[in-house]
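Review this chain:
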Amino acid sequence: MSFNLRYGTADDGENSWSQRRQIAIQTIREYGPDLLATQEALAEQVDDLREQLPDYAVEAVGREDGRRRGEATAVFFRRNRFELCEREHFWLSETPEVPGSISWDASQTRMVTVCRLRLQESPAREILFFNTHFDNRSERARLESARLLRERITAAALHDPVIVAGDFNATEAEPVYRILLNGEHPGSTLVDSYRAAHPEHNGEELTRHDFRGERKGSRIDWILHSPHFITQAAAIDRREFDGRYPSDHYPVTAELAFT
């Protein structure tokens, strides 16, 4: 599951985090993902999920300082399914190893969290799970972010199964999508899980709905994977609770199997 939670200090009135915390957590529990990528969560929101979802371990740092300040691209994984082998955080900038760095006319600091996870049931098998959130205003920043992420993915996907989740603030009609999916080397290409499960566009694939529950439009939240996997199912999770939504984005889900 990839889930943009909407940052907790937003002035959202009845849709503020304190009013929807429990339905966001319930959404996650009801789907029960083995792997969960969240975007926009502040440290307090990550803490809320950590407390309420004890079956999950989490890797997260704030984008502003690499500690707790600012939004995180958090990775949650089930403790009984995965063991964390390595972690990495890098920033979508000209100096990716510098916490809080920003480039390319981006409106906000943006980053990527990467976890190398070993399957408990098959210790010889590891996957790399990437979670990111691209800039919402600067097209240049999204393009350069896609190129930087593509470099890291290519280096990884030649050797290991890769899953990439996030809010890309772009539709599949934009160059960002093609950059990410089309690897330069055989075996480094990525598959869009939703499009693999739903080859035909139906015009009702909106993922950011601004708490209005709309459907007409295009996806900006994706789960991509390397050819090490096949997509068994994928969906936009539009569940609501008495007319209320857990976030301004619908979470997106995918069920993957090793080839």
User: Anything to note?
Assistant: The first helix runs from residue 17 to 31. The helical segments are 17-31, 43-52, 139-157, 175-181, 193-197.
